Amino acid sequence: MGRALATRNARIFFAASLAAWTGLWMHRIAVAWLAWELTGSALWVGLVAFCDLAPAAVISPIAGAVADRVDRLRLATVSQAVIGLEAAAVAALVATGTMRIEYLLLLELCGGTAASFAQPARQTLMAGIVGRADLPAAVACNSLIFNVARFIGPALAGPVIAGFGVAPAIACNAVAYLSAVVTMPMLRVDPAQRRGHPATGSLLGEVREGFSYVARHPGLGPLLLYAASLGVLLRAVQELLPPFVERNFGRGAESLALITACFGVGALLAGLWLAARGRTAGATRIAILAGLAQAVATAGFVATGWFPFGLLCAALIGATASLHGISVQQLAQTAADPAMRGRVLALWGMITRACPALGALLLGAAGEAFGLRWPTLVGVALGLLVFAWGWARHRGIEAALEGPPEESLEEGRRR
User: Fold this and answer.
1) Is residue 373 part of a domain?
2) Which residues cross the membrane (predicted)?
3) Residue 170 CB partners (closer than 8 Å, separation 6+)
4) Structural domain includes residue 240
5) HSE-up of 60 (CA within 13 Å, CB side)?
6) Nearest to 67, CA basis, from 187, 197, 179
7) What kind and span of H or E run contains 404?
């Protein structure tokens, strides 16, 4: 952590990230609760999550190619400003009593599109903020801060929503993102790291090149496919918390915030451990085994109606998801060709946003017909099969991602 925060640039960057992500988690809690209040339908809550996350399925590959050919600092600034303005619009509509579920879907679609550009722009900047030797620690620190915010945001959102309604909680996100925008010009990033490479062809051609690069890579391809499968099958629970809180546990907004904070506590502890490791050796095994642990914890969460056990399972889900996500990011940052890094990280962003969105939509629809518990347990069973597939291939993935770069490239050619 000391290495990751050693420079002025890093301290500004991560402080702005903490502010923005704290606001983001307040926004997510408030918007999910707002959708539940407006409709009382798990399907509509799933649709709101889908509109926030799904643009990544279309936009992220393009955003990654854009991040590899434009000024990344400027791209991050503009996209974060759009997110802040979207939150301000949602808060204003709620405060004036004119919000409708259709407006909420449209605005979340807008915010999700902007977030798809912000993610690769910000993550590719990290290589210009810390040295290559400290990049694994910086990736862990980045995820750690995200999960600190995941704890603080809900802890603030619960009392705010219970006492004053959802509008002030969403307005906090607008203030947080706009304050992050103000700090971006303070960063002094090496010009070589601000821009990936000059445009060498059409934008869509570079998008296809990014997909082809990942698909051919003997480590990144199967690892990202593993992550995508688990994202669809297991992550939807976190996107549909309001129905789970009310139906499984019979509780309200403050308990929703408490469960979300428990996700953050577990993720925070796991992130601290990975930040202390500060290396990528063994990250492949951690990423794959964490999928197994996440499936087991998810089964425990949906099978119980006892709130204290639900809180424990939520913390375990947060911890295992953090172990998986940070490890995949560390491997992607260090193994990807620098000219491809933006596109690889954009694909990772697509996985973390689009796959949970698809899962939330499917689970929300199934929940209307069968309840939430049994469809989730079916997803867990399929997740265990995905783990078996990933574990059978983990040695090859490990050799490709954790060996010297020359060794990884040679193995890719042989395959």
Assistant:
1) yes
2) 12-36, 42-63, 75-95, 164-187, 218-236, 256-274, 286-303, 309-332, 344-366, 372-392
3) 26, 27, 30, 31, 87, 90, 91, 94
4) yes
5) 26
6) 197
7) none
- Domain residues for 116? 8-414
- For residue 412, the model assigns a pLDDT of 42
Instruction: Give the Cα separation of 73 and 82 in Å (integer).
Output: 15
Distance between CA atoms of 135 and 147, rounded to whole angstroms?
A: 18
Separation of first and last alpha carbons in the chain: 37
With beta carbons less than 8 A apart as the criterion, state whether 187 and 7 touch: no
Is residue 214 situated within a structural domain? yes
**Does residue 132 sit within a domain?**
yes
Distance CA 228, CA 407 (A): 26
For 55, list phi and psi in degrees, rounded to 5.
-55, -25
Number of domains in the chain: 1
Residue in this structure with the two tokens 């399929």, named with its chain if needed: 382
Question: Both tokens of residue 9?
Answer: 């640039």
**Whole-Å CA distances, 213 to 219, 220, 307:** 11, 9, 45
- Per DSSP, 282 falls in state T
**Tell me, what's the pLDDT at 410?**
41
Q: What pLDDT shows up at residue 69? A: 75
Q: What CATH number is associated with residue 362?
A: 1.20.1250.20
pLDDT at 411: 42
Half-sphere exposure of 334 (CA within 13 A, CB side): 30
* Residue of 167, 176, 175, 172 whose CA lies nearest to 91: 167
Only one residue has tokens 């042989």, namely 414
CA dihedral 73, 74, 77, 81 (to 10 degrees): -160
CA atoms of 367 and 52, how far apart (whole Å): 20
104-156 tens-digit pLDDT:
999 999 998 898 888 778 877 777 777 666 777 777 777 778 777 877 887 78
* pTM, full prediction: 0.70
Cα 415 to Cα 135: distance, rounded to the nearest angstrom: 28
Interacting residues of 287 by C-beta distance below 8 A, sequence separation 6+ = 223, 226, 227, 323, 324, 327, 328, 331
DSSP-assigned states of every residue in 165-224: -HHHHHHHHHHHHHHHHHHGGG----HHHH------S-HHHHHHHHHHHHHH-TTHHHHH
